[in-house]
Design goal:
Number of domains: 3
Strand content: 25-35%
GO molecular function: FAD binding; oxidoreductase activity
Structural class: alpha/beta
Number of strands: 17
CATH topology of the largest domain: FAD/NAD(P)-binding domain
Distance between the termini: 54 Å
Organism: Alicyclobacillus macrosporangiidus
CATH superfamily of the largest domain: FAD/NAD(P)-binding domain
Bound molecules: flavin-adenine dinucleotide
Cofactor: FAD
Keywords: FAD, Flavoprotein, Oxidoreductase
Radius of gyration: 23 Å
Helix content: 25-40%
Protein name: Electron transfer flavoprotein-quinone oxidoreductase
Oligomer: single chain
Shape: globular
Largest sheet: 8 strands, mixed
CATH class of the largest domain: Alpha Beta
């Protein structure tokens, strides 16, 4: 007869592996299905990994996990054509304990899934979960692409990422709309360790993140440049609806960023090691599907749990994986796997920062998919750079006149004072 588990987890990304670890370490019989040759094989992120969500489950995990550099400085660069307005924060407090690290998914995901395996989860890799098996409304297992590949369980945890075939098959969400996802491209460039440390002004094991606004052909999107041990990760994510409208390819946007003189200086000589593309869920709070039902729960990207304003996705995925795992442990004890019993997961997410943060930024989606996006990501970054040039160049003109000219540049870019106030107000509202 077909194999039976207490729980099946689909997807060994951060969400799925944490869910599997949480349940297996409490003695549950867990299957962890992953389509990749190994967990992380094809996974892509920027990427910054945060300490908190994993530390709650695996204390001091960073002493053994394959991580790149601890992030001691975070910069925000607003790019103009040949200039940059920058804001940054560097702190010794980020060193011990670190707040975040840069990482590579192929290594990190494989390590994290290994933790779940050692806790007792049964790895079923190179296997695609093709659909859910139902008994009436109840989900009772998954079909896989293996011969005689049906697996049964009391609960299926759907952690199969942004394209979530299984959530779609449940009917809880359809294809994401083009303004609910951005398409990101990323390149990994090899450079010697000491060159990276010198260019970014950091010591051995320490790193810098730079988020980039501007030079995205006027489209809603953010670029990034992160330091790894002996590579740099550079990439950009742009809303799919914008790419369709402007008929621009994402690699063209990345090329435009890479050609910026200030970026050139940092990446010069870097040899391309990898090139990848991936979707990022950016629909926010209003795009989240129902999270649980009879025999199922959904975690991470499959449920749009990404806080794009703070480039947080892996942390929310791991937190949701833990909450789903803990709910399953409780249901295993009572034997209640009904929609009511598993509803405790939906409730736990509601009480967590996943719900609270995504709700706070609820308005961001309409700001980024609306007409003002072109202004925010095109005209305004350039105007800010021009205004800074005005203010900082000493050319015999009075400061009052300079100030007026700088303000006029910003007003002009925003289509007048009302436009500038409007965009400021909408921006503030979107974040609050
Ligand atoms: P995933 O990591 O997508 O894992 C899903 C897993 O399921 C994969 O291993 C996949 O192979 C597997 N799978 C899918 N379908 C099936 C199937 N049918 N059967 C079997 N297996 C299946 N987040 C951050 O925290 N920090 C960052 O700096 C950051 N930067 C990013 C930059 C880019 C370019 C991108 C694309 C994302 C970034 N994110 C970042 C977001 C982050 O990567 C995601 O939020 C996170 O990976 C979600 O984890 P997950 O486990 O839900 O999904």
């Amino acid at each position: 007869s077909a194999p039976r588990f207490d729980a099946i987890v689909v997807g060994a990304g951060p969400a799925g592996s944490v869910a599997a670890y949480t349940m297996a370490s409490q003695g549950m019989r867990v299957a962890l299905i992953e389509r990749g040759e190994f967990p992380g094989a094809k996974n892509v992120f920027g990427g910054v990994l945060y300490r908190k969500p994993l530390e709650d489950i695996l204390p001091e995990f960073w002493k053994e996990a394959p991580l790149e550099r601890k992030v001691v400085e975070q910069r925000l660069w607003v790019l103009g054509k040949d200039s940059v307005v920058s804001l940054g924060y560097r702190s010794a407090r980020f060193k011990e304990p670190p707040n975040a690290w840069t990482g590579q998914r192929a290594k990190f995901d494989a390590w994290l899934a290994g933790k779940a395996e050692r806790a007792g989860a049964i790895p079923i890799y190179e296997t695609v979960a093709t659909s859910l098996i139902r008994d009436g409304d109840k989900v009772v297992g998954v079909q896989t692409d293996r011969e005689e590949g049906d697996l049964y369980a009391s609960v299926v945890i759907i952690a199969d990422g942004v394209n979530s075939l299984l959530a779609k098959s449940l009917g809880v969400h359809r294809e994401w709309k083009p303004d609910q996802v951005s398409l990101a491209v990323k390149e990994v460039l090899a450079l010697p360790k000491d060159v990276i440390q010198e260019r970014f002004g950091v010591e051995e094991g320490e790193g810098v993140t730079i988020e980039l606004i501007g030079e995205t052909c006027g489209m809603a999107g953010l670029g990034f440049l992160y330091t790894n041990q002996d590579t740099l990760s550079i990439g950009v994510g742009v809303m799919v609806s914008d790419l369709q409208k402007k008929k621009v390819k994402p690699y063209q946007v990345l090329d435009s960023i890479k050609q910026h003189p200030e970026i050139q200086r940092l990446i010069a000589g870097g040899e391309t090691k990898e090139y990848a593309a991936h979707l990022i869920p950016e629909g926010g709070f209003d795009a989240m599907p129902p999270l649980s039902g009879d025999g199922w729960m959904i975690c991470g990207d499959a449920a749009q749990m990404v806080n794009a304003a703070h480039r947080e996705g892996t942390d929310l995925a791991m937190l949701s994986g833990r909450l789903a795992g803990e709910t399953a442990v409780a249901c295993h004890a009572t034997g209640d796997w009904s929609a009511g019993g598993l509803g405790a997961y939906t409730q736990a997410v509601k009480e967590s920062i996943i719900h609270r943060d995504l709700k706070k930024y609820r308005g961001l989606h309409s700001l980024l998919s609306g007409p003002q996006a072109e202004l925010l990501f095109g005209a305004l970054p350039q105007a800010l750079n021009d205004a800074a040039y005005e203010m900082l160049s000493v050319d015999g003109e009075s400061k009052r006149d300079k100030q007026k000219r700088a303000a006029a540049l910003l007003r002009e870019a925003a289509g007048g004072t009302a436009g500038l106030i409007g965009i400021g107000w909408r921006g503030w509202r979107a974040m609050n």
